[in-house]
Amino acid sequence: MGFFSKIKQAIGAGLEKTKRALATDVRDLFKKEGRDGRLVDDVFIDQLLEILIKTDMGVSAAKEITSEVKNRFRGRVVFMQDVLETVRAKLRELLKQEEVPVKMAAAGPTVIMVVGVNGSGKTTSIAKLAHRFQAEGKKVVLGAGDTFRAAAVEQLTIWANRLGVEIVTAKQGSDPASVAHTAVTKALADKADICIVDTAGRLQTQKSLMQELTKIHRIVNRLIPEAPHEVLLVLDATAGQSGISQARGFTEAVKCTGLVLAKLDGTAKGGVVVPIRQQVGLPVKFVGVGEKLADLEAFDSEAFTEALFEGLVEEREGAGAGQPAK
Amino acid sequence: MFEALQDKLNKAFRTLAGTARLTESNMREALAIVEQALLEADVGYKVVKDFMASVSAKALGEEVLKSLRPQEQVFAIVYRELVALMGPGDPSLHLRDFTKIMLCGLQGSGKTTTCAKLARMLAKSGRRPMMIAADLQRPAAIEQLIVLGQQIEVPVFADTAAKDPVELCQRGMQHAGLAGADVVLIDTAGRLHIDDELMTQLRRIDEKIEPHQCYLVVDGMTGQDAVNSAKAFNEALELDGVILTKLDGDQQGGAVLSVRAVTGVPVKFLGTGEHIQDLEPFNAEQMAGRILGQGDIAEIARRAMTEIDQDEMRRQQEDIAAGQFTLENFRDLLRQTKRLGSMSKIMSLIPGMGALKGMMGDADVDQDFGRLTGVIDSMTPQERRDPDLIDQSRRRRIAAGAGVEPHEVNDLVKQFDMIGSRMKQMMGLGMRDRMRAVQDLQKQMTSPGGLARQKVGTGKRLTSAEKARIKKDKEREMRRMRRKEREGS
Question: B411-448 burial, b if ≥16 CB within 10 A, otherwise e?
Answer without folding.
Answer: ebbeebeeebeebeeebeeeeeeeeeeeeeebeebbee
